[in-house]
Design a protein that fits this description.
Elements (H helix, E strand, L loop, with lengths): L1 H11 L3 H34 L13 H38 L9 H43 L10 E3 L13 E3 L3 H8 L1 H73 L1
Antiparallel strand pairs: 1-2
Length: 267
């Protein structure tokens, strides 16, 4: 019976809203990081196999080096938001427990209120950052969608001489000519390969993951703001209860003193 009551008590203080936001954040970050990493690898393969892009020397920053840098950034994003999700869950547990145990031994401190406010500010910054990541991820989705559409309509564009030039996207310098035209053998090989279709759909999944992370950040902001409001009201109630308790104690002491004085006078 004791274990059952303990489990019921733990479920009572479980921050379900924070738990839902954490699951959504982890799912979105995992989808973005996993699919984004593989999509970048597929992009590097397409650039090397069909656009004949070669890796520049170590001291030169080229498109392949930037892809490698973005991969390491993805590793950092995955690790950082794994830790941040845990911190937000812990904050949710403490805030929920502080509100539920307002009349118990656990008291809400000024440090706890400052931590809650700090998490609100930090979550808002991450919300803006994920909005930027979502906008940035939509660019390769749009580019690959155009290429994928050309490949799906090869018979329509058979007479036209359309070329995909990397100089238009700023991936190579103006002096380098790296392009694939619709009538060339490389274009047909690229369209028939699995890399193009897989990379396009991986970028779409990465965009969906970034959108899920944005929704999770919005959900976190609502949860943290609600917790902040509850904590603020709970602090006011806590101060009121402390003042009321002191006044009752003072009245009790006064009555006790008067009763002793009357007893001494009668004696």
């Amino acid at each position: 019976m004791g274990c059952f009551e303990c489990c019921v008590k733990c479920l009572g203080v479980l921050p379900y809203a924070s738990l839902f936001a954490t699951i959504l954040l982890y799912a979105g970050v995992a989808l973005f990081c996993g699919c984004g990493h593989e999509a970048l690898s597929g992009t590097a393969t397409i650039l090397q196999n069909y656009f004949e892009v070669v890796r520049a020397p170590v001291e030169t920053l080229d498109v392949l080096t930037m892809i490698d840098i973005l991969k390491y950034v993805i590793y950092g994003v995955a690790a950082a938001f794994f830790v941040y999700g845990i911190l937000l869950m812990v904050e949710g547990f403490f805030t929920t427990g502080a509100i539920r145990d307002l009349y118990g031994d656990f008291k809400i401190t000024a440090c706890g209120r400052c931590v809650s406010a700090w998490f609100i500010m930090l979550t808002y910054i991450f919300f803006l950052a994920w909005l930027g990541v979502t906008a940035f991820t939509s660019l390769p989705v749009f580019m690959y969608f155009n290429i994928w559409t050309l490949c799906q309509n090869t018979t329509v564009v058979e007479g036209a001489n359309l070329c995909l030039d990397l100089r238009q996207f700023g991936m190579v310098t103006i002096g380098e000519e790296r392009k694939v035209c619709t009538g060339s053998e490389k274009f047909f090989k690229m369209c028939e390969s699995n890399e193009l279709d897989m990379t396009f759909h991986l970028f779409v999944c990465a965009l969906a993951g970034a959108g899920a992370a944005v929704i999770a950040m919005v959900h976190y902001l609502m949860v943290l703001s609600a917790n902040w409001a509850y904590v603020k009201d709970a602090c006011r109630m806590q101060k009121y209860e402390d003042i009321k308790s002191k006044e009752e104690q003072e009245l009790h002491d006064i009555h006790s003193t008067r009763s002793k004085e009357r007893l001494n006078a009668y004696t």
